[in-house]
Write a structure and sequence with these properties.
The chain has 135 residues and is mostly helical. It has one domain. The chain contains two helices and no strands. It is rod-shaped, with a radius of gyration of 34 Å. It starts with a helix and ends in an 8-residue tail after the last helix. The relative contact order is 0.05.
Length: 135
């Protein structure tokens, strides 16, 4: 039960962090978009002798660059999601390894005590001595 609670808290913290990162990325994209539109407006003012065809070509080029940036951002977000899921898998494996090591130590301790008891029985049977010396 305790592990489930801690795992849920961990997931909640991870999601809150992810939301903050997405909000920051969204703010960055909005700033970049405003900057690009301002630059483009200045460009059009400086080159007012552009024809309509040249302006359309510039807009299409701008749109394709924006789409490329959006695709790249989506790809990076998916990579980030995959990285986070792999971190969770690694943490689960570490936890499982820790649990297995603890279980192994317990089993090794039981085997040692069993081995000692078996050796005492062998000595007792071999020498058929007084059992009080080997207890």
């Amino acid at each position: 039960m305790q592990n489930e609670v801690s795992e849920i808290k961990s997931i909640r913290d991870h999601l809150n962090k992810y939301i903050r990162e997405l909000e920051q990325q969204n703010d960055d994209l909005e700033r970049a978009k405003r900057y690009l539109f301002e630059c483009f407006a200045i460009f059009l003012e400086l080159n007012s002798n552009f024809s309509c065809r040249e302006t359309l070509a510039s807009l299409e080029d701008f749109e394709s660059r924006m789409n490329s940036a959006i695709e790249r951002n989506a790809f990076l977000e998916s990579e980030l999601d995959e990285k986070e899921s792999l971190k969770a898998v690694v943490q689960r494996m570490k936890d499982e390894t820790r649990d297995l090591r603890a279980e192994l130590q317990i089993l090794a301790g039981k085997q040692r005590s069993y081995s000692r008891e078996t050796r005492l029985e062998i000595v007792k049977q071999k020498y058929k001595c007084c059992p009080k010396h080997y207890s």
